Amino acid sequence: MFSPPSVQFLRAFSRTLSWSASFYPQPLLNIRRRSTHGTTPAFPTLNILGFLCYTTSTLLFYFSSLVKSQYRTRNNGEENTVRANDVAFALHALALCLVTWSQFWAPLWGFEKRNVRVGKGVWGIVVGCGVGVAWVVGMVLRKGLDGGRDAGSWAWIDCVYAVGYVKLVVTVVKYVPQAWANYRRKSTAGWSIHQILLDIIGGVLSIAQLVIDSSLQRDWSGITGNPVKLGLGNISIVFDIIFMVQHYILYKGNEVEEDGMDHERRGLLSRDDEEAAARR
């Protein structure tokens, strides 16, 4: 069905001008400060995993005739709501995630060296997601009918959904380390608020796009059949609000030293003040 120009613009704006643009402020801020201090390595690491999976599922939904057929079988003959702009967004996002992640390798960018490492919990999530996807693939190979081509049993579309759900899981957890780091530092310095503002716009418009697409098709299975896209928009909005509260209300104006020694300095200053007071 033909979409009116306003709907086409909404689709383009939600991805190209909002979510896609949201990947630039953080690496540009890192370059300007010549440091990644203020951001956690967990965020870009999980982002790479998430968008690798999201790109995979999006490409399969868009290009695979088998996946498209199985989707129609399970959703009353309707087409899935993945569009060309979703594919472009996924590939672009994955590339920018790799750029941001590479900035934690200080020699590559000439940044100040930091003693940072990705925690065991993050690697546990990565391994757990890999095991989960492998289990679904095994079930398709073992119990799927007609080599997984029969959508009425375990089918290859289930593997696509599994990969997509990894992105959903990653989105749930990837913001937590950064939100916790901001809380401990009582500051959002080094964490770009502009990426958050662009992200929340993209989240709202992405959900609007999904609803409009399903409305034009006169079938709401476009939403129920694409829970990853719906979930991503909602989860992103929740965490974006948390970061906005931290930046504009809780820790407004709070700054920390570039080298991360702010807690130690405050401790030394406090002891100096106490000694000076005792002498007086």
TrEMBL record:
<feature type="transmembrane region" description="Helical">
    <location>
        <begin position="232"/>
        <end position="251"/>
    </location>
</feature>
<dbReference type="InterPro" id="IPR006603">
    <property type="entry name" value="PQ-loop_rpt"/>
</dbReference>
<dbReference type="InterPro" id="IPR005282">
    <property type="entry name" value="LC_transporter"/>
</dbReference>
<dbReference type="Pfam" id="PF04193">
    <property type="entry name" value="PQ-loop"/>
</dbReference>
<feature type="transmembrane region" description="Helical">
    <location>
        <begin position="87"/>
        <end position="109"/>
    </location>
</feature>
<feature type="transmembrane region" description="Helical">
    <location>
        <begin position="121"/>
        <end position="141"/>
    </location>
</feature>
<feature type="transmembrane region" description="Helical">
    <location>
        <begin position="42"/>
        <end position="67"/>
    </location>
</feature>
<feature type="transmembrane region" description="Helical">
    <location>
        <begin position="196"/>
        <end position="212"/>
    </location>
</feature>
<dbReference type="GO" id="GO:0015293">
    <property type="term" value="F:symporter activity"/>
</dbReference>
<dbReference type="GO" id="GO:0005774">
    <property type="term" value="C:vacuolar membrane"/>
</dbReference>
<keyword id="KW-0812">Transmembrane</keyword>
<comment type="similarity">
    <text>Belongs to the cystinosin family.</text>
</comment>
<keyword id="KW-0813">Transport</keyword>
<keyword id="KW-0677">Repeat</keyword>
<dbReference type="GO" id="GO:0000324">
    <property type="term" value="C:fungal-type vacuole"/>
</dbReference>
<keyword id="KW-0472">Membrane</keyword>
<protein>
    <recommendedName>
        <fullName>Cystinosin</fullName>
    </recommendedName>
</protein>
<keyword id="KW-0458">Lysosome</keyword>
<keyword id="KW-0769">Symport</keyword>
<dbReference type="GO" id="GO:0015184">
    <property type="term" value="F:L-cystine transmembrane transporter activity"/>
</dbReference>
<keyword id="KW-1133">Transmembrane helix</keyword>
